[in-house]
């Protein structure tokens, strides 16, 4: 509970800081300078991979259960990763609808910066960043399951966040929200799907 409360307070503080002081100047800088655009786009690319990989693995997992395939040492890990990605995807869609944050381009064209809760329009779905959540959820699962590679997991998350902001896809606060959403989803999936003995497929 202490860690949860600490993470929630930190998230709220970073979001306030970003919305008030960072979002607009950082986006305007990226928009007007347009430097390293191809590089930023490549940096954000890893966020495109988790959703299709999760669906593919779950399909293979279900087929393997039906076919009676033996379980590998990484079956449970891949199942936890896939569930974290899918839950993060569903959660960000609901939050986008509830919060109604305009995209940076919409703010630039219309001047609308405030929230439009329950708007449901395509122009108001910036927060939280879904692509940040897609990469953060599985990477935080790996953070707890394979802690010896934590610098790699954090580097991938940072790459996507910097790429999304640098290219102008998102405000800073959007990717901060996606980061904490992915972290929360990963923590829930790790808690609900604890590691189990490795005997029998899917047991």
Account of the 3D structure:
This protein has 203 residues and is an all-alpha fold. It has a single domain (2-192), classed as Vanadium-containing Chloroperoxidase, domain 1. It contains 8 helices and no strands. It has helices at 2-33, 37-44, 50-67, 75-99, 104-110, 130-145, 150-167, 172-192. Helix 3 packs across helix 4. The model is unreliable at 197-203 (pLDDT under 50).
- Average pLDDT over all residues: 92
Counted up, domains total 1
Instruction: Let me know the number of strands.
Output: 0
Radius of gyration: 18 Å
Shape descriptor reads elongated
Reported for the largest beta sheet, the result is: none
CATH architecture: Up-down Bundle
Helix content: over 70%
Order of helices and strands: HHHHHHHH
How large a portion of the residues is in β-strands, by DSSP E? under 5%
* Distance between the first and last residues' Cα: 29 Å
Q: What name is given to the CATH topology?
A: Vanadium-containing Chloroperoxidase, domain 1
CATH class: Mainly Alpha
Task: Find the structural class using helix and strand composition.
Answer: mainly alpha
Number of helices: 8
Enumerate the spans where pLDDT stays under 50 for 5 or more consecutive residues: 197-203
